[in-house]
Fold each of these.
Amino acid sequence: MTQDELKALVGRAALAYVVPGEVVGVGTGSTVNCFIDALADSGLRVAGAVSSSTKSTERLVARGIRVLEAGEVSSLPVYIDGADEIDPRGHMIKGGGAALTREKIVADLAARFVCIADESKRVPVLGGFPLPVEVIAMATAQVTRRFAALGGTATLRPGVLTDNGHPLLDVRGLSITDPLAMEAEINQWPGVVTCGIFARHRAGVCLLGTASGVQTLVF
Ligand code: 5RP
């Protein structure tokens, strides 16, 4: 199977976690696009979706799914999103699509994070994928120096501003052996909006697309 077919497979598999009649949290990315299409095609009736990006909102609306603001709900039964890397304990790197801050906000509303990914995203230790970090523009140089002190090389993602209007750093060379501690450390540096380590908001379930079908990992 191609990577696109694996993404479509897990996008459809995620429908089993959607609670009919409730609002669903929706992430961002090519795998989530497959989920949005599967949801629209399924005939499953949801009360709407809370979206993590302009791109997902546009796709949801185009497919006839009502989009609610995060502030309109106090909780969500489930949040469905992809990942750039996922480790053996369900910790993830996210933000390849620049939506990490809103993704973490919507994930925080949800009782359960269901990660959908093809098997290439599974890694023993996070950090092979450059870590996305959304920053306030004036702090870019300071935050870059802090990463250098940790052995990381941060570069601005060219031509990209997040939906919140901020630049993004991509940090190479980190070996994230303690994701919880590193997430907490980075998030308290002045000027960091959000770092793309999802450890406090790790996946509860991962639906992994493999050549032999969907593998369900429960953390
Ligand atoms: C967007 C993300 C995505 O979930 C992540 O980049 C995976 O994307 P894809 O499903 O296209 O591989 O974090 O900010």
Amino acid sequence: MSGNDIRNVIIIGSGPAGLTAALYNARANLAPLVLAGPEPGGQLMITTDVENFPGFPEGIQGPELMQRFEAQAEGFGTDIRREIVESVDLSASPFSVTTEEGTYRGKTVIISTGATARWLGLESETRFRGRGVSACATCDGFFYKDKVITVVGGGDSAIEEATYLTRFGSKVYLAHRRDELRASQIMQKRAFDNEKLEILWNSVVTEVLGDDLAGVTAVRLKDTQTGEEREHATDGLFLGIGHDPNTAIFKGILDMDDDGYLLTDGVKTNVDGVFACGDVTDHVYQQAITAAGMGCQAAIEAEHWLEGQE
Ligand code: NAP
């Protein structure tokens, strides 16, 4: 529980950015508090093979990597609590951060709340969510053994999901709204080389079809060039269309861009003593390693800021 203690650093979020900030602040004897949030460990918890995190030449599973981040941060004295922040008062230091358990006060705050998977926004998509519609291949792929699967998107996430799903499905389609992929070259090659994977170009999903008993049986696809619509049989629909930053609790408090990403000068927000790092402020790179690097920067800036107050 919160009590009256004033913490040196409160870190909101526990992905690579937050836990790296925690590691650095813990090693600087600042005993940081991490409020882990609704998805402890962040997006890597729903990722399979991570092949591009330096130091793991054989690759590592996302959840295992995050367990290691957590163990390392805790090992140096980080207090990690699985609580969800409901509101903040950043008007002056010490700042207040309120969870369902109570209010914590911190001289500095580091925001690393990350970003969350995007949905298409169709009524039928909501109706079949969890019954044929998913945004997490790692979580739900297993249920589609020998089934036909359709993935939406043309970026790295969509290809990663689609490639992963070919382990289970008899056939995987990638429905992309344009005639070229956004994904990196290496991921594109992976998609083109995979015989189980077929790309449906210029295609958008306009409706998810099915019934209560069978779940999803098809999607309605619209050709973005001709406007023609057709039914495309599929047992599952996976979304891989990007993410939205988790900044709802900072609206009206911190500066953010039109998409809701926090605006920073380096890792400094517009509030003195409040820092932001990772995907919550980065819509360009969005990598575990860049998030971790920003977490390190935020921790060092917080440390300097605290020194400046003494
Ligand atoms: P992204 O690069 O923004 O791609 C989103 C894709 O979804 C785009 O192809 C976009 O189409 C499509 N899309 C967006 N909204 C849509 C809608 N409403 N309907 C249909 N299609 C829609 O997002 P991401 O793939 O999640 O990647 C984000 C960042 O993470 C990137 O920097 C990426 O490199 C990185 N990442 C890397 C890896 C890896 O290296 N293993 C894995 C995952 C992500 P348009 O192309 O037409 O805009």
